[in-house]
Structures are given as C-alpha cells and as structure tokens.
Amino acid sequence: DAGITQSPRHKVTETGTPVTLRCHQTENHRYMYWYRQDPGHGLRLIHYSYGVKDTDKGEVSDGYSVSRSKTEDFLLTLESATSSQTSVYFCAISEFASGDNEKLFFGSGTQLSVL
Amino acid sequence: KNQVEQSPQSLIILEGKNCTLQCNYTVSPFSNLRWYKQDTGRGPVSLTIMTFSENTKSNGRYTATLDADTKQSSLHITASQLSDSASYICVVSYNTDKLIFGTGTRLQVFP
Question: Which of A44, B19, B96, B109 is least crowded, fewest Cβ atoms below 10 Å from its Cβ?
C-alpha cells in the first residue's frame, strides 16, 4: 500500500470516549487525507493536510480534528466518539494536490466501531 | 448538485468473460475522471486517470472510456480473472482540487 501504515487496523470503543487514528507514510508526500467509507456512500473527505501544521476541513469534518506535526504522520482524533462515527477510515497520500492528474495512494483502512 | 452514479451496483460473471461497468456524472467544472479498484478489506488502488481530452485509456485488461459530452464513462474488463473480484469505484475531480466518489460496483468472478 505505497508505504502507508494505518493504526490501529481495528478499534472498538464506547460512545463519548476520545479516539485517535494514526496514518504514517514513508513516501515523503506533501498531501495527506482522511476519508471515511460507509455503505451507500462514496468515500467522503474528513480533513486533509497540505504540509506540516497546514490542515483544512473536508465535507464531513464535524466531530473530527487532525494534526500533522511531521511530514510522515497525520493523526485523526474523534474528540467524543458517537455511534454515527462507526465507519471504515482511510488515509491517503499524494505528492501534489489530489485534483490534479495525481494519483491518490490509500492505506488499508481502520475499522472503527463505536458502541 | 455534483453527483457520480455507478451501475450496476453488483455484477456476477464467470471467469474468462468480459464485462463493462458504467459511471455517469453531473460534476462541473470537470477536471478528470478516475477508476479505482478496491479489494475487500483494502484501500482503493488507482487503475486509470483520464482528462477531458482523453476518451480511452488502458491498463492491462482494464480499458476505461470517457465521453465528456454525455458525461459518461465505462470500465471494460477483458477476459476476467478470479482476482478481478473487487469493488470498482469511479471518481470525478472538479474545481481543480475536489474529488467526488461513486458508491462503486461490486464485481464477483466465479470459476
């Protein structure tokens, strides 16, 4: 998966608890993204980063925050997990902005269940 | 409203047969169209990227077509293999930096 590691791969948590998902890349790509994938929906962008400490919101950012203190790491935090955040979360990277003729490389995903 | 619709939702074929998956979009302004393959339990992997001026692009047994006038794309798989069993996702880029993902077609290839 193009030098992208997501951790954990599976997580079960309770409503109201904080959760942090980690994405680590070894490709030195500038752009990193967090998506969620749910049945009946296409992948939806949560947040993205265009450099160290440079982040911006995607279309479904409510309830999520991100941080990028190093080029290789992009963290997604659910401050207080809710059942609606049960989903599969994918990290993706690209060397240039995703809208250009630029491939996105995806990690293997984190299955998060909020009970 | 920007939308990407794929059909069929699911498809079953026998090994060795060909198949075609469809993608219709209402996205503006159009930048490019991509097809991804997603194996169960894995992240999507890029198959092709096509710009406005390209109407065909191949990647091995996968051939994507694009008709920008009718806003339709297709992905044709030739001589299917068991390893082609996966979801195929159509993605359209617009406004130069935004992506909208279809919900995918789930393909199952049986021996």
Answer: B96
Rounded to a whole number of angstroms, the distance from the CA of B14 to the nearest CA of chain A is 26
pLDDT at position A108 over 80: yes
CA distance B84 to B103: 18
pLDDT single digits (tens) A22-52: 999 999 999 999 999 999 899 999 999 999 9
Provide the token pair at B83: 């390893």
Counting every residue written for chain B, the total comes to 111
Q: How many A×B Cβ pairs under 8 Å?
A: 57
pLDDT at A100: 66
- Give me the phi and psi of A75, to 5 degrees please: -105, 140
A34 with A48: CB under 8 angstroms?
yes
Contact A1/B101, CB-based, under 8 Å? Answer: no
Residue of chain A with shortest Cα separation from B95: A99
- Beta-carbon neighbour count of residue A28 at 10 Å? 10
Determine, for residues B49 and A42 on separate chains, whether the beta-carbon distance falls below 8 Å. Answer: no
